[in-house]
Specification:
The protein is mainly alpha-helical and about 220 residues long. It contains 10 helices and no strands. The protein has helices at about 5-20, 35-50, 55-65, 70-85, 85-100, 105-115, 120-155, 160-175, 180-190, 195-205. The chain is elongated and about 60 Å long.
Length: about 220
């Protein structure tokens, strides 16, 4: 296995693991210990770092016996199978990754590479295009998170107008960013724009039902 290829794989996995803790859709787990399946995936990664792909494959397969719905385990198993030259099995695992985690740009990229190697130009182009689209969504989501942070700082500095502008930018970048919708709704409520505030608060609760309805008098 080439070191450069392994580095790309591990960086991609790090991004995939980080994305699971998405605070937009559910409350984050507070310092939770890894599940047995997560631990098996981590062991597999360590084996990959030691250039032991066959042993890594066994750990990823074990992870899937513990949690068949783990997108990380499917992705890493697909990746190592691809490196071992088992393209049919790799493609099945990568497609399962996409089914479980539709925003996995890394899985789409790997699917495109396998299809291109097989001469399926149309299929490869579609997968690469989807990978590009998902990467842009991720970049926009990260930019929206920064905009929300900037808006909160402006609120703390009593700059309500500036905060609303930052929250609006966050919503423009990522309309499905629950915190952006929620913070914009709260700020508009403070500004007295109750009709528009209710629209954004309702959208925030649709995206993340755990978000509490604010006290209209606050």
């Amino acid at each position: 296995m080439r070191a450069a290829g392994l580095g790309i794989v591990l960086c991609a996995l790090a991004a995939a693991l980080a994305s699971r803790a998405d605070a937009q859709s559910r409350p984050a787990r507070a310092a939770a210990a890894p599940t047995p399946a997560e631990a098996a995936v981590a062991e597999g990664i360590a084996l990959l770092q030691q250039n032991r792909p066959s042993d890594a494959r066994a750990r990823f397969e074990h992870a899937l016996t513990l949690d068949p719905a783990s997108p990380d385990a499917h992705y890493m198993l697909g990746t190592v199978l691809k490196q071992l030259g088992k393209s049919d099995e790799a493609l099945a695992e990568l497609r399962e990754t996409v089914r479980l985690q539709p925003r996995s740009a890394e899985a789409q990229l790997s699917i495109g590479q396998i299809l291109r190697q097989r001469g399926d130009t149309a299929g490869a182009s579609a997968a690469f295009a989807e990978a590009d689209r998902l990467r842009k969504l991720k970049a926009d989501d990260q930019a929206a998170t920064f905009a929300v942070s900037a808006g909160l700082k402006k609120l703390a500095a009593k700059d309500l107008t500036g905060a609303i502008a930052s929250f609006r930018e966050a919503v423009r970048l990522a309309p499905e960013h629950a915190q952006a919708q929620y913070q914009l709704g709260l700020a508009l409520q403070k500004a007295g724009a109750s009709v528009e505030a209710r629209k954004h608060l309702a959208e925030a609760r649709r995206l993340a039902p755990y978000l509490a309805s604010p006290d209209p008098s606050s």
